[in-house]
Model the fold of this input.
Amino acid sequence: MKDRLKGFTLLELLVVIGIIGVMMALATVAYAQAQQSGRNTRRKQDLVAIQNALEQYYSANSFAYPVGTCSVAKDHLKSAWPVDPSSTATVTIPYSENCASTSSYCVCAGMEPATSTAGNSTTSSCGWANSGAYYCVGNLQ
Done:
């Protein structure tokens, strides 16, 4: 009897390649979700930093919040005004701010994906709820 070369058949190789392909697809989806979660966490941290800056502004300016744009409180931030983690633009979209009176403010960020329930508001105008596509912070005083 002739000695045959021992190795893998074409069918076995195709099965292994198919299994590796499925595993790569699952890993890609998990990685994308982890990136979204990381960006959402960064947005929440940025909003807390903005909230702290606005509260410091309140204390330093005769107990009044800024009217018009909240970004006048940027001098009270430890670093520059936050940038959305998914873009290089300054905080505008998906961030929204409402500094309409000297007694209150609201700053919101859109969570990913847009249908997310990771936030605490259903609208970017601080419609407070238990969940929603927006995460908002408001005045503490």
